[in-house]
Write a structure and sequence with these properties.
It is a single chain. With 176 residues, the chain is an all-alpha fold. The chain has two domains: 70 residues, no CATH class; 60 residues. It contains nine helices and no strands. Helix 1 packs across helix 5, helix 2 packs antiparallel against helix 3 and helix 3 packs antiparallel against helix 4. The longest helix is centred in the first third of the chain and has 14 residues. The chain is elongated and about 95 Å long. The model has no long low-confidence stretch (mean pLDDT 86).
Length: 176
C-alpha cells in the first residue's frame, strides 16, 4: 500500500528530473532527483540508498512536497542564530555613531564606546566582536590616520622640528 505522500508524487504531472537539471541549489537538486526516483517507482529505502542519504530524509522530502509543493523542498528559514541587533535600526545606529564621532574633540570612538551606545540607546547587550561585525555590516570601518590629541599645538611642533639636532653624524657604508 502506498503512503499518501508517495501516491501524490507518483500521480504528479511534474517532471522532477528536468527540474533537477535546471536547479542551481545543490540540496534542492538532490531532493528533486529523489522525488524523480520515487515517481519512477523506487521505494523510499532504495531512493535513500541511491542518493546516499538517510531514509528519514527521503521521507521528509516527500512529506514536505505533499504539504507545500515544490516550495517545500527549499531550505526552511529559521535555522541558525537570529541577529541580536534589529536590521531596521542599523541606519539609526550609523547616524548616531557618526554624530557622536563628529562631536568628539579628539580621538575617535572605540569599539567599547560603540558597545555602550548599542546597549544604552538600543537596549541590546552584545559582545565586542558583535559590535565590530555590526560596524562592518553598516559600512563603518575605522581605518584612518593617527588621531590628534585635543591639546596638540601646531606651532610648538614646528618649532621642535626646526630646532631638533641630529644626534648621530655617522655615515652608513656597505661592508661587502
Amino acid at each position: 500500500m502506498l503512503s499518501s505522500a508517495k501516491s501524490i508524487i507518483i500521480n504528479s504531472d511534474i517532471d522532477f528530473l528536468s527540474l533537477s537539471k535546471k536547479e542551481k541549489k545543490p540540496r534542492v537538486r538532490i531532493r528533486l532527483l529523489g522525488l524523480a526516483h520515487i515517481k519512477d517507482g523506487a521505494s523510499y529505502r532504495k531512493t535513500a540508498k541511491m542518493l546516499k542519504v538517510s531514509l528519514v530524509s527521503v521521507q521528509n522530502w516527500a512529506n514536505r512536497f505533499k504539504k507545500s509543493g515544490l516550495k517545500g523542498l527549499n531550505d526552511q528559514e529559521g535555522s541558525g542564530c537570529k541577529p541580536l541587533f534589529p536590521q531596521e535600526k542599523e541606519e539609526e545606529l550609523k547616524r548616531l555613531i557618526l554624530e557622536k564621532q563628529s562631536k568628539k574633540s579628539g580621538g575617535r570612538l572605540t569599539g567599547t564606546d560603540i558597545k555602550k551606545i548599542v546597549n544604552d540607546d538600543f537596549g541590546v547587550k552584545c559582545a565586542l566582536r558583535t559590535v565590530y561585525d555590526l560596524l562592518h555590516k553598516i559600512g563603518l570601518v575605522w581605518i584612518s590616520s593617527r588621531s590628534k590629541h585635543p591639546k596638540n599645538d601646531k606651532k610648538a611642533q614646528e618649532d621642535f622640528k626646526k630646532n631638533f639636532k641630529k644626534k648621530s653624524n655617522r655615515s652608513f657604508t656597505s661592508r661587502c
